[in-house]
Recover the amino acids of this structure.
């Protein structure tokens, strides 16, 4: 089973990912600094950490998906 996240975490993460796609990294600490700068005073430290963790997991999922697609392309090129 996956982790359950509240809607606010998902909405904030989606907004940050949409506005700053290049600034979000697969490192939690870097994402925490980014979220802290963007949402200064608007969210609690606990919510900031949850948003940072969710951003980290989204970026890692995207990277895994891209590497899997590259692997499939390489296999297709080898077999052709």
């Amino acid at each position: 089973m996956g982790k359950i996240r509240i809607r606010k975490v998902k909405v904030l993460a989606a907004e940050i990912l949409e506005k700053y796609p290049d600034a979000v990294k697969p490192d939690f600490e870097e994402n925490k600094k980014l979220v802290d700068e963007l949402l200064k005073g608007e969210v609690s430290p606990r919510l900031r950490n949850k948003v940072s963790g969710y951003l980290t997991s989204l970026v890692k999922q995207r990277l895994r998906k891209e590497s899997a697609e590259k692997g499939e392309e390489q296999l297709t090129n080898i077999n052709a």
Remarks:
- The first helix runs from residue 7 to 19.
- The chain has one domain: 7-79.
- The chain has a mean pLDDT of 89.
- DSSP finds three helices and no strands in the chain.
